[in-house]
Specification:
- Helix content is 66%, strand content 0%.
- It is mainly α.
- The chain is globular and about 35 Å long.
């Protein structure tokens, strides 16, 4: 399996697209705390941090607006919560 794309390898367009997705999710009402959980989960998926607590990951899955931020990380969270 190929490792996830690291931030240093992102193009400027990729960074802008990620920021737009976060803005869109927030505009649609995603609570900031769930955005922070998604960002922490992304860091954990990259191997740079510990995974957030199970209960927080479940909250992310329960709010479909989280999916807007990053479909791949959302799927990784889903796999981690429901192996």
């Amino acid at each position: 399996m190929q490792p996830p794309q690291m931030p240093a390898r992102r193009t400027a367009e990729g960074v802008v697209a990620a920021a737009r997705a976060m803005d869109q999710a927030r505009a649609e009402g995603l609570p900031d705390r769930l955005l922070l959980v998604m960002l922490a989960a992304r860091s954990a998926w990259w191997g740079d941090a510990e995974w957030p607590p199970h209960a927080q990951l479940v909250e992310v899955l329960m709010d479909q607006r989280s999916r807007i931020i990053d479909e791949v990380v959302f799927a990784a969270i889903k796999k981690r919560v429901r192996p």
